[in-house]
Amino acid sequence: MRFDELERYLTVGGGVTVEVRRCPGIPGVVRTTTLHRGNRVSIEHEIAAVYALGESEGFGPKYIGGYETFPELVERLEQYFDCPIAEWRNYSMSPFAEEEIEEGFDHVTAQRQFEDLVRARAVELPVGGEFRIADVHFRHIEKYGEFREDKIWEEQDEYLEKSWGTD
């Protein structure tokens, strides 16, 4: 992929998945990296078989981050992927093939592995970008060490107050 080609995809389509890679040590799970307008990046962890069907369940932690400039975004992702942009692929146009899926997915074990990684803040992310967890379950794992149902409404109120202010 070329720099200008990637910029065009983002301008026309708004988002493009440029990486789909197996998660080391977590069989049956892939990590997807999608670029969005405004130099934003989302990194998601999906069950490979579900992803290959073109569906997304949001199985593992989802991170959202961003960069000041498009060149910085590309540079940081080249480092993260250990791969130059010229070798990137547009997975939005040609998704991960079903025959590439590993067998042996264990939902409970994979969930526990992700929770341990999040708790330890050991999920590999690109340098910079101020990545934050987007889903409440894994935000709780990171913040409290466990999912806290009693904190959901409190956090929603904080979010609404920050977003909309108070009356």
Keywords:
5-stranded antiparallel beta sheet, 5 strands, alpha+beta, 167 residues, single chain
Question: What would you say this structure looks like, in words?
Answer:
The protein is α+β, with helices and mostly antiparallel strands. It has one domain (3-104, 120-134). The protein contains 6 helices and 5 strands. The protein has helices spanning 3-13, 48-52, 70-81, 107-119, 136-144, 152-164, and strands at residues 15-22, 29-36, 40-47, 63-66, 132-133. The protein has a 5-stranded antiparallel beta sheet. The longest helix is centred in the C-terminal third of the chain and has 13 residues, at 107-119.
The tally of domains stands at 1
- Protein structure class: alpha+beta
Question: What is the mean pLDDT?
Answer: 87
Radius of gyration: 17 Å
Low-confidence stretches: none
Number of helices: 6
What is the overall shape?
Answer: globular
Strand runs, count: 5
Report the span from N to C terminus: 49 Å
Q: What helical percentage do the residues reach?
A: 25-40%
Biggest sheet features? 5 strands, antiparallel
Strand order of the largest sheet: 1-2-3-4-5
Beta-strand residue fraction: 15-25%
The sequence of SSEs as H and E is: HEEEHEHHEHH
